[in-house]
Specification:
Layout lengths: L8 E4 L5 H12 L3 E6 L8 H7 L6 E4 L7 H13 L4 E4 L13 H29 L2 E6 L11 H19 L4 E8 L5 H7 L3 H11 L8 H12 L10 E4 L9
Parallel strand pairs: 1-2, 1-4, 2-3, 4-5, 5-6, 6-7
The structure holds NADP nicotinamide-adenine-dinucleotide phosphate.
Family: Belongs to the short-chain dehydrogenases/reductases (SDR) family.
Pfam family, one: adh_short_C2
Protein name: SDR family oxidoreductase
Length: 252
């Protein structure tokens, strides 16, 4: 299937590693010009070569830390100044935040800033520009939205899904879609290094939750993101699609 991404401009946040990096490479391989972000330019150092190997055009690299005040505003202004427009916004930067203390105010603040406010702000700055051109895609990475343990990311991701649905309705008649992709357990640094650092915990989780019997790969999430970014997905909006190997329980 031709995803018709040639000449599209796609901003992917958190593209240094994991799902964001796989998405940046795939969408670039499909012909789009990618604007890739991470907190430091050095973290993005090997991305241009990976994109070139996949046959994509050279990406624009920008350093952005979304926990800093004004970061979404600066990022959007820089992306528009360098590329003229953004057609596709993949809000991928984010992460799980298990809490050592239930009342850790800094953890709540940091997680909502990264996982909800920065995503909403970047989107609300770009959505009107997409609507003016009559074409646009916003794809937000969420995850579990009902948790069994305290995790400062879960309510933030729930807020993001709720906001995304409302934004999707607001822009639906103007050629712009807003969707969420909810990974279950994908083999990335946060899952392998922090959430399931040992093999026993991975196997136990898989046995209890994942009928496919394995964690997913970043490329398997990127495939859905690229499809949602495409013209073929124009009648899909306001929804959340899991990439989770058929997980039996979503509230983990
Ligand atoms: N992997 C999973 O199974 C899973 C499950 C549920 C939800 N998700 C969601 O999917 C998305 C990607 O997950 P992942 O596992 O691929 O993550 P990851 O491997 O931990 O990568 C996270 C990316 O976000 C960037 N980032 C982190 N903190 C940032 C900040 N303060 N400002 C700007 N950028 C920041 C990182 O860049 P630098 O560190 O280089 O700055 C990195 O590129 C996240 O939103 C995550 O919540 C993933």
């Amino acid at each position: 299937m031709d995803l018709k991404l040639r000449d599209r401009i796609c901003l992917v946040t958190g593209a240094s590693t994991g799902i964001g990096r796989a998405t940046a490479v795939l969408i670039a391989a499909e012909g789009a010009r990618v604007v890739a972000t991470a907190r430091s330019l050095s973290a993005l150092g090997s991305l241009p070569d990976a994109i070139a190997e996949a046959g994509g055009v050279e990406p624009v690299l920008l350093a952005t830390d979304f926990t800093h005040d004004g970061a979404p505003e600066r990022l959007v202004a820089d992306a528009l100044a360098l590329c003229g427009r953004v057609d596709i916004l993949v809000n991928n930067a984010g992460g799980s935040r298990p809490m050592a203390r239930p009342d850790d105010q800094d953890a709540w603040q940091e997680s909502f800033q990264l996982n909800f406010r920065a995503v909403r702000r970047s989107s609300e700055l770009l959505l009107p520009t997409m609507a003016e051109r009559g074409w646009g895609r916003v794809i937000n990475l969420t995850g579990a939205v009902v948790a069994k343990t305290l995790n400062a990311a879960t309510p933030a991701k729930a807020a993001l899904e709720s906001w995304s649905k409302a934004a999707a309705g607001h822009y639906a008649a103007r050629g712009v879609t807003v969707n969420c992709v909810a990974p279950g357990r994908i083999n990335t640094a946060q899952i392998l290094d922090r959430i399931h650092p040992d093999e026993a915990s991975r196997q136990d989780f898989i046995w209890r939750n994942i009928p496919m019997g394995r964690f997913g790969e970043a490329e398997e999430a990127a495939a859905l993101i690229a499809f949602l970014a495409s013209d073929a997905a124009r009648y899909i909006t306001g929804t959340t699609i899991p990439v989770d190997g058929g997980a039996l329980r979503y509230a983990f």
